Protein: DUF6594 domain-containing protein
Organism: Colletotrichum destructivum
Amino acid sequence: MPYSTFHLCNKRVSMSMPRSSPSKRRTRAHLDRATKSKEGYANVARWMALDADGETHIYRKFDELAARNLLFFQSELLALAAQLDHFDEKDAETDDMDLKDAAMTWETLERRAASDDRGAKSRMELIMRIREKIIEYHEALLLHSEITKLRRPNRRVLDAFLMWFKQPFPALGGRAKTFLDDPDDLVALNAVSETDFMSEYLRRHWPAQKEISRDASFGIGRYDEGSVTLAVAIVSILVAAVLLVGSITSLYFVQSDAAKLGMIAAFTALFATSVGTMTTARRAEIFAATAAYAAVLVVFVSGNISSN
């Protein structure tokens, strides 16, 4: 899936946008929309919606408020639980068999509450409040858990958004003009997933069609993310072929064992570097792939030495 990408270089911002043969007209239509005059929230919403991949959808998550809300829910439930414990203590101390029966049998409790028994009615109201509140609390917990999984916006995307939003003056007034100022409290609804060094480098330097910023001080370029993905794939295939075939061919013609060991070390280092810069592999995966590659070279050299 294509992703939007921004970069700031000499006041130039690039953002990817899917383009195919007929999509050039769509790109021009996007740029025409960008030049239409709008103000305030309409202008900001229009600019965010111009990104077909949604990477410009950056919002505050209000972590502190969310945490406080959960604490309020928690404290309210603790207070309700204490009231329920008080009823349980009374049930344990009483000799009234009707109360004990109501504590043990739901149908009895319902019947007594419906007959305007004050104790049973109070207990039933408390149970209903707990049921309602704990559902709200659990929903809030689950929602907050999902929000915490959202990633922060890409630094380049945020810089581009800030530059567009702030110049020549904030696009929104009041307190809303500062909503981008705390990067630790921002989330992107669709952040870039391919963050390897090669992809990032190409995104920063890929040719892009520009649109003009609010104050005409810099351009926002839109390009085809699929072309970047294809370029990275081609480069990765070529590098993999060179590192595998090239290393084996080189080792075949070298006679010195010491030179072969040095070449194995060099090719292994190059392989680890290429995997680290051209893929999104984790450290454990890089170690595993590098060990497998080195093992192939060692087996080849060992077999060659044995045959000699």
